[in-house]
Amino acid sequence: MPDIRKVRRRIKSVQNIAKITRAMEMIAASKMRKAQERGLAGRPYSEKIQQVIADLAALNGIGLQHPLLQRREVKKILVVHITPDRGLCGGLNANLNRRLAGFITEQKNPVGIIAVGRKGRDFSARAGLNVSAEFTDIGDHPGFLDTIPVSRIIIEEYSKGAFDMVYISYAHFISTMVQKTAMKQLLPVQPAAIPAGQNVDYIYEPGSEAVLGGLLPRFVETEIYHAILMTIASEQSARMVAMRSATDAAGELIGDLTLLYNKVRQEAITRELLDITGGAAALEG
Amino acid sequence: MSSIKLDIVTAERVVYSGDVDMVIAPGVEGQLGILPHHAPLMALLQAGELVARKGGQDEILAISGGFLEVRPDRVIVLADAAERAEEIDMARAQAARKRAEDRLRDRKAIGLDEATAEAALKRAIARLSVAEKMQQRRKM
Question: What distance in Å separates the CA atoms of residue B113 and residue B120, rounded to the nearest whole number?
Fold first, then answer.
């Protein structure tokens, strides 16, 4: 027979947890919406940049000499591992880290890590990976400028030849219910194929190489910015879903506990009545 | 008179979008004036003022470098950062210029190269002058 006061205390504490998870769900929902909006607002810019790079790449004549386009024999790989700073978002962090671990075991070449986000950094440190830089506390709504230091380091390391290939590992936001881990090649830049007949013969000022040289670093910057925004949107939506099911589970638990509470209470009353009538009968007899 | 569609976008947002009669942009090799039917052009921009002229009215924006693309039907500016005149905080812009000047002067002590320091100063000056022009126009 459970103690009635313990049951009551348990109900109270589950109710409190449900309150917190419900609040967290709502906060996550609003943060997710914001991250999505920011991602959308920046889309014209990144699409344009990709298109112009594709245009320039189609100009075969100039031979596209730029360090960020240069293909080298791959000796060392860099993965920019973007994860949330916080947990309580379902299986997202575990999935991201597992994807990274899977990727590393597939590679024949040594892999270095730049960790963005505390969860990925902690995982990399625990796994004894070679972390060359880490960025944490980027916040829930980073501006473009906040993400530039990440891109700077990537560009610097790649130009120096410290790495011959760079991948971004991040969470691809598909919908509120679906987020996928993604592993995408960032460098060397692969110019997208452009549909034929779209080419416009541009005048380049001051010159096609200067324009390309200005565009490529910005391309890297926007890719990183978007991957970070995507990961934030994924984190928030995963958290929203996780917190919703936690709230539901708490509701169920409260129902079960209330039933138990009532049963115990009733039994106690019945027992007391039996005692009283039993006592009265004994006195009479 | 025909007009041309102008879009100014940054990585974070769309700053301006509308039909204009003429665009004047700060190219790295000098001012660029773009009228409708301009030949396709792809130009690097430096920090400065970008003017969108429409029916004799000028809208001035401060931009800090980027790209300008001219297509037969539209002009697209990919700016690193762009602000409309009314968005600029005068006091902050002045503080930024002072800071940029100081850093240009003391660049050796803090290990900054001249080009970076100068670019920062140029950006600050561009924002300030856009904001000033806006204020003058309000007084008129």
Answer: 11
